Amino acid sequence: MIEQNLSLLLVIIPLLSAPVTAILPNARSAWLLTLAVTWTCLILAGWQITLVTDGSIISYELGGWSPPWGIEYRIDAMNAFVALIVSGIAAITLPYALLSVEKEIPLEKIPLFYSAFQLCLVGLLGIAQTGDVFNLFVFLEISSLSSYALIAMGEQRRSLTAAYQYLIMGTIGATFLLIGIGLIYAETGTLNMLDLNQRLQPILDHRTVHTGFAFIVVGIALKLALFPLHLWLPNAYKYAPSVISVFLAATATKVAVYIMLRMVFGVFSDEFVRKTPTDHMFLLLGAFGVIMASATAIYQRDVKRLFAYSSIAQVSYIVLGIGLSSVLGVTAALVHVFNHALMKGALFMACGALVYRLGSSRFENLNGVGRQMPWTCVAIFIASLSLIGIPGTAGFISKWYFVLAALEQESWPIALVILLGSLLAVGYVWKIVELLFLRPASDSTATVGEAPAALLVPMWLLVIANIYFGFNTELTVNVADTAARMLGLGMNHE
Amino acid sequence: MIDIILDHYNYWIVIFLMMSGFYTVISQGNLIKKIAGINIFQTSVFLLYISIGYVDDGTPPIIAEGYTTYANPLPHVLILTAIVVGVSTTALGLALVIRIKEAYSTIEEDEIHDKDKSL
Fold first, then answer.
1. What are the Cα distances from residue B87, in Å, to A210, B84, B92, B94?
2. Which terminal CB of chain A, N or C, has fewer other CB atoms within 10 Å?
3. Among residues 46-85 of chain B, which lie with CB inside 8 Å of chain A?
4. Residues of A in contact with B116 (CB under 8 A)
5. In the CATH hierarchy, which fold is given to the domain comprising B2-117?
6. What is the pLDDT of residues B12-60, one digit of tens each?
7. Prediction ipTM score
């Protein structure tokens, strides 16, 4: 019974509990319900992925209407993988959220905060589960609208302008996606992804299809924060409440990557990508993104902003993987989606712990804090090593696959860009290490205590996961490889 | 040439609205005007979808004797959902503008920028 409805339950449980959470009388009960919901989702997502890792597919007909007329939830390895990442990060964020949220959000607003958090989770999980492009647009807007509201709950007034800017950019992106979906619907008369894929193949040279494709790619690129459409991201991550920075940095852009993969390869095809200049565009923008964003990160004076720019760089690596449009490239992209969620989750949790104790993430307030908050700062150090891609960390595995994918096609410039990006990452990580450990402590940092255990435990779980997945690549690489093959990518080409 | 314009006048209106809305979002510094621009932009997409549902000589999609050609109702249903999304976006955007006005006592983008700089 549960197994049959697994794919729907994953979306419906947070959807139903979100309004309940909003009317709960106090902060603790709202937190407790959200905790229960996120862990239930994690268990369901874990169950779901065991059913599809062998390459099988779960097809769920919503309301019993058979596809392509009804909405279909079609779960293959990639869907289940993304759903697992989203619910896993949500579940690990919740224990961390208790203290951090109580400190940063006014008490009477906390139930509403958790309600919006669950709605955001619904949207992201829904995107991962659905097999219908219009349904995907609706879930994208659910997750986006709730994240605008969540970002606006930050402590400083600049969180309002950051949320507003994100709202404008995000709405333009979503509307572009809507236009694109409308155009391909006009050509094919269907919204089901699988059906679309089959009906689009004979008409891929129609101009309407090309226009629709362009709108869809640009729309998703805005959500993805692909260079040069990334300008909304640094402020949104910087001024959001700590918990939201953790959650969005680890999941929102990753889900956008999934939409891009699903649309570009699943709905259109890798052949179409190579026939049009799409793959070159991805490679070019990805390469620029890696270098520009990493270089900009070096000049930041605030740890949260610095890591936000580093996020843009990491997303650009993923776009490079997509641009290679090979099985290995997409495998690398998906592995990095997982690993980057672990790294940025840990890093933004550590930033949240610094904000929790010191009230600021700006450099001038953090001099030499590593001696007072060793656990937090060592967590930043290890997660940063993973960000650079030092062997023994999860980041190394992703970088390794990116370089392999680039060399498979003898794209030396791309391999060089990946190495250069890592060198630049050494640059900004060194800045942070110097700031936290080598500078003399100032008045405010000399007396501060270590962050409470409730913040440290989830943070260190993610840090340990960074090391664990640096050695055990079975889950990540196997699932990513299965997912990439199921997208119908050719083994090798040209 | 004239025929192309006249036969597809609804699409030309869509393009005109889309571009004027998009231009308003980009060019205006006033936060409310930006929201208005977004609204026009989204409305053009509603019209696009409704136009897609049109079938030559089609009647409204109600089953009745003697009528066999119907307009496609699905785009209309889809766009109802998109209208709801648009309304929520507008509401949230305007709510943010109110909060920004309280925090900065202005809704002009450049003035907000100056106030953040001077801190």
1. 30, 5, 9, 11
2. N
3. 48-49, 52, 75, 78, 81-82, 85
4. 158, 161
5. Helix Hairpins (1.10.287)
6. 899 999 999 999 999 988 999 999 999 999 999 999 998 888 888 778 8
7. 0.93
